[in-house]
Amino acid sequence: MAPPVPLLAVRGSDGTSLLCGPPKCEQHSPFHRDSRNCRCFTFSRDGTLFAWCNGLSVSVVKCSDSSMVATFDLPRATLLEFSPLNNILVTWQPYTKSQDRPQGDANLLLWDLQSGQQIKALYQKKVESWCPSWSDDEKICVRSVNNELHFFENNDFNTITNKLHIQKVSDFALSPGGQPSKVAAYVPGSKGAPSFVRLYQYPGLEGVSSALANKSFFKADRVTMQWNNKASAVLVTASTEVDKTGASYYGEQTLHYLAVNGETALVQLPKNGPIYDVAWSPNSAEFCVVYGFMPAKATIFNLKCDPVFDFGTGPRNAAYYSPQGHILVLAGFGNLRGQMEVWDVKKYKQVSKPQAPDATHFSWCPDGEHVVTATCSPRLRVSNGYKIWHYTGSVLHKWDVVAGSELWEVRWQSFPEGSFPERAIKYQAAPSELGTTQAPNTQAYRPPALRHLPASQGAKLHEDEPPQNMRPGLSGEKSLSKTALKNQKKREAKKAAKQEAKTEPEPPSDPAPVSNSQSELSSGDLENDKKIKNLKKKLKAIEDLKDQQASGKVLQKNQLEKIQKEDQLLQELQALQIGQ
Description:
Helices cover 14% and strands 32% of the residues. The strands form 9 sheets. The chain has a 5-stranded antiparallel beta sheet with strand order 23-24-25-26-36, with no helix packed on it. It has 4 helices and 36 strands.
């Protein structure tokens, strides 16, 4: 049986339409394009339903044949969301009040999709955390109300089953999957006390003693919490609005790790600067962080928060894993040129390096073979349009808006996990009439005073760092702790020193007298011997650095530069030895 073809929803000033995904990239014939301006749209989690608001009403249709499921008279709806099992549609519109109704109208509405009846009308003034969070089986639903977490069971929103008894909870994240559900709660610091994040397993919500894990930290105005797919750990990116040192325009960020088994850690990032993006691998065993002043570094860490692979430096600020987890795209959008690095994360080998200039949106197709990039308003009001790519860099479909029109959003149809099996990665570009757009090799700006010099002599603003595998035990040896590695290196150094002492010839017991002419001749030899000794010393230090790199240690920039000079030192040593 052939896998399904994902749909791509497109909305803009010309209306709303559904597009069949690659290879056809044609209009989805059962869906008639809605020419009215669409405020918002969404797919259900399993991809069977599609909902949108056109300024008159909210409509819900089946994706397969576009048959109508329900219609709601909600012209002001601006946000839509389905519950995981498609039992409820949640709609939100801006909160307003008038002289006649000083309390305002309930603006968060829950609708039963089968009957079309309203289940509950709630007040939600802020757009942040507007939508209730469900467990995958819909047995538990959580909502933040006045800095408290209210828990509901079995979609009964008339009864608050449980509350999290912590004051001033400003954000939360419910774990994915079914029971037992876990929740991460963030409480900002005040009056000198630190901020903290705690993990709880429902229904054990009583204070610190029932928490699965607790991590406190300073320097946090807001946090972003991300669970992995297995709900075994959560990553917390803590941010401040202002960097008091003045080093960064983006404020300060720190990354914290909490596991449900109680383990917590601060993720150590070797380069200073902002944290641009954090992404969990779908396998839940590792995560990628893009960080540091430009050119930014990107590193994959394991669940012990140890680096596994460093992608070096480059113009990037985002990371996107494919749904199957076998491909990682590192991209630089926004104020960067749109360069995308496509990596095979099993072999740590680069597949392609296409470029999508002016892109404001990127997302993976559920099949793990294709991606879409788009330039949307209001982020950019010129050159609006979208492209569908194969991950090897080929552009399969391109659409640009007509003059005077705008593109607002594109979104792939969702599918249940396992709908598309992982395929073998190809390194040859997929055939396409539109070709590929590989990123050109650009040269750095050089001031006029340096342009007459060779490129190698020009002053560099920064040193590019190459990718390096940081996994311990690459050559098959057993992984050792830091202390064990240190002791092992000491033993190897002592052993090498003993061997050198044995190989050195013993000085003669009765040296013959040396004439003045002989001493003059030997002074040059002595100078050469000194140079050879110094070169051997430098080469020995380089060998030690290479051993440290192989064992997984992160080398500094000056240490990497020393390693790069090894060939030059060997040539100098060879020349001196020939001249003797």
